[in-house]
Amino acid sequence: MNVRKFKTREELGQYAGEAGIEAIKASIEARGEANVILATGQSQFETLQTLVGAKDIDWTKVRMFHLDEYIDLPVTHKASFRKYLTERFVDIVGPLKEVVLINGEKDPIDECNRLHKKIQDHPIDVAFVGIGENGHLAFNDPPADFEVKDAYLVVNLDVQCRQQQLGEGWFASLDEVPGQAISMSIHQIMQSKKIICAVPDERKALAVKNCLTLPISNLHPASILQDHADCTCYLDQGSASLLN
Asked: Quick check: helix, strand or coil at residue 192?
């Protein structure tokens, strides 16, 4: 794992986004298309802004997957990740080769099976991810399952994860935060050729320290990124504040 530190989250997002742009362009040049995974949440705002500002990507050659979605949350809810990506990415860049969104309003097991089959046919060129306040990767809260080979899982969200969603302003109360979600598995994320991990803000500092400096453990799910051959973690002054 490579680690890059920046003064501000805006600078972090610019460099993380530019790295993603170059990776997408390289995949299109090499294979005629690119398969990407996009993350959501407050931590990804600046990275996505940089990505959608790219003037030299043919988005009609890009297929997009995403990491997770709440179960039984309407797509009209402001916390819906389908809504987030549609408004902040899909509607801005124009038509893509394919948009593969997780529908948490369908039967979750059937949806996991559909997504598993789809992603097996389209190996991921570049994945944009973050690290949660509890160290989660996607919605794989601790203790995360490092062994399961299914591409998508139904997961239970722990209290710290749900409190993070509340703290970021997506819900009015903790009781409103769903207790379950569909999440891409750790194994599937690790199959990505390149991983760009954007983690701003001091509230993530302890999770960053645990995941980047302690031995790999499912108690710190994002620590598995230490084992990836091409992963760069982009930090700002706050998120890197507990690192040497």
From this structure: coil
